[in-house]
Design a protein that fits this description.
The chain is mainly alpha-helical and 202 residues long. It has ten helices and no strands. The longest helix is centred in the N-terminal third of the chain and has 25 residues.
Length: 202
């Protein structure tokens, strides 16, 4: 069927407006790179679980924080450092006082040799949980990796004073390799082992 030209000319402006509106609506529903029913993912998105509008819900934030923390732990165990970092940051987006997420985020940064960011994570953890032994243990690792063995030993001593108990980790952690080569560490560890015994540091 062919419409009369006069009718086409009469309704053409309206058709143009409607088609433009449809295109704009389609772009909002299905953004470039996305698919029907699923928004496109990008680095600025808070997350991909549809909870953008519920950040005032403490219970939901806690659940989402735990979800991303557990995902980060899985990624870290599998050596997927960038994914682990992303998930820990998402956990902290939902709960910015999640001490364990700061600890593991700094661990992921250390493994990725992103020392500045590891230090920033530990600084934030220091504001949230200054008495955490894992804060000071990871500081010891950071200082050892960057060649500051005196500061590394000081941080490790602080971690032990606060209750760090994993002797095997101290003796085998590759991040502490430089520290273990220092005379001060060897002297401290020998004296500590004799004084504290197995009950204090198994």
């Amino acid at each position: 069927m062919k419409l009369p030209e006069s009718l086409i000319r009469k309704f053409l402006p309206l058709l143009l407006v409607l088609s433009t509106a449809v295109i704009m609506l389609n772009d909002r529903l299905f953004p470039p790179g996305g698919s029907p029913g699923k928004p496109a993912q990008d680095e600025t998105a808070h997350d991909d679980h549809g909870d953008h509008d519920d950040h005032d819900d403490p219970e939901k934030n806690k659940l989402m924080g735990n979800f991303h923390y557990n995902e980060g732990n899985r990624d870290l165990a599998e050596g997927k450092l960038e994914e682990a970092i992303k998930n820990y940051k998402m956990a902290l987006h939902h709960n910015d006082r999640f001490a364990e997420a700061y600890v593991n985020l700094s661990t992921a940064y250390l493994k990725a040799r992103r020392f500045e960011e590891a230090g920033e994570s530990l600084d934030r953890l220091d504001e949230v949980a200054p008495e955490s032994p894992h804060l000071h243990y990871n500081r010891a690792c950071l200082h050892s990796l960057t060649g500051n063995t005196a500061q590394s030993l000081e941080a490790l001593q602080r971690a032990v004073d606060l209750g760090y108990r994993d002797r095997g980790q101290i003796e085998t952690d590759p991040d502490l390799a430089a520290l273990r080569e220092s005379a001060n560490y060897k002297s401290w560890f020998e004296k500590f082992s004799v004084a504290a015994g197995e009950s204090a540091l198994p």
